[in-house]
Each structure stands twice: as C-alpha cells, then as structure tokens.
Amino acid sequence: MQQDKHPDYRSVVFRDRAAGYAFLTRSTAMSDQTIDWDDGQTYPVVDVEISSESHPFYTGKARTVDTEGRVARFEKRYGSAGQGSGGGDAA
User: What does pTM read for this prediction?
Assistant: First the structure.
C-alpha cells in the first residue's frame, strides 16, 4: 500500500454562521481557522453556507407547491378537460 496518498482524516468543527450552529465531526476538510471547543481542545473550523439547522427542508419552513389549487383555478377559469369541446370519438 502506498503511503501519504490519502488526506489527513481528523476532527473538524463545521460552523453554520446563518443559524449560529456548530458541530464536531471527522473530515478531511482543510482550514486555517481554529476554534476552542467545549471539551477544551482546539479544532480546525470550516464555515458552511447552510446546514440542517438552516436548510428549509429540515427546519419545516420549506414551501410546498400547491398543485391542487393550481389545477382547481385552471379548471374554474377554462373549464374541465372532460367537458365536451368536440374532438372526441363520435359514434
């Protein structure tokens, strides 16, 4: 096995500045910044744009598309597709 091929796998703090949330995990991510963690150790810190604390899907603030309302408005405006506009099979 070749030595020194893989990056260093170590403890790293990921910090979501938007939510004010940070968590300690293991990663190969590199950073020049450090942070003093709750356990008294100093770890590299990587700032991220979004995490599970600020992502709309995980926070419950996700917008859902109201497809049923759109269909109802369309049918109200233009009529139901099943109502005879001709063009069907005539017997």
Answer: 0.56
